[in-house]
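Annual report, structural modelling task.

Input specification for the MRU complex:
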Amino acid sequence: MTKEFSPIEWGNNRLSVLDQTLLPFQKKFIICRTYKEVGAAIKDMKLRGAPLIGIAAAFGMAMEAKKIKASSYEKFSKSLKAAGEELIKTRPTAVNLKWAVNRMLNFMESNRERRIESLKDLLAGEAVKIYKEDLENNKLIGKFGSELIREKDTILTHCNAGALATAGYGTALGVIRAANEKKKKITVYIDETRPYLQGARLTAWEMSEEKIPHFLITDNMAGFFMSKGKINVVIVGADRITANGDVANKIGTYSLAVLAYANKIPFYVAAPSSTIDFSLKTGDMIPIEMRSEDEVKKIFGKDIAPLKTRALHPAFDVTPAKYVSAIITEKGVIRAPFDMNLEKIFQNKEIVADL
Ligand code: MRU
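The model returned the following structure:
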């Protein structure tokens, strides 16, 4: 995998998507031609990761814009808003999805005087801009975050916050990539991340491709390795960060944060500003996606529990800000008090509002 590897490709009003449900065993691209196909690919986890689902939704909106046949701006905007609402509903926790849809709609609104045909082209350009900005932001996150990594650090990560979860390079894995580029001789411990196995299937694949030394562990081994002094940094991504610094991320992140705190290990969260939701004060307000119980009861389609046993599957949990040592963003590294410092660092940045 080159450093510029991206899980999606845009061209001719189509989005080519690397099907992440098949990794690491098959590398197959599917083509999305409509926003509904993009929505289905997001829902079915063919593409996943907070920044990537936002970017894909923006491309879905651009596709739909081209297809709308409307004689007035009012009709055009009504149709595009409806598509946006449908896309937002596909996965509720990652705020990047809503952020990207609102950014496209705000952009449409501020160009409402343009002829509809040229507005369509402008919207496609805006989606490409969102994609490119994400890649640039990840490089900056990598640059700032790698300064926190010491020589020979052993870094634990959870889920997949890599190139596969973004336009490319990754957030948490962006920090790891940048530290590796600086020849810091790091080793990565990868939580397998039950039930969807993003760690085993995706993060281990990315680390293998990059030839970064790594070990796969099951989620319940993390405390053991921390207590033995084998892990000295934890870095994860985020699906939504609230104004006070609480962090929603893949289920299991909260347990890791508490373990890291108990073992005096720094716990870092790497995320772009599109993941920060200033409209929510605290993490208990974040909607948590509940997924199918079959994803817990089966592995690769094979039952692993009595058929009558019921299972629960919250896909994310919330880590209170008090367990977070720092949030690494494209603007720099932010530390507590997060309520003050997040606002301070992003006060000049336009936060995309709901239309
Ligand atoms: O359910 P997923 O695979 O979309 O969950 C992904 C995560 O939880 C990631 O850690 C998060 O989206 C950050 S990706 C840069």
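DSSP finds eleven helices and 16 strands in the chain.
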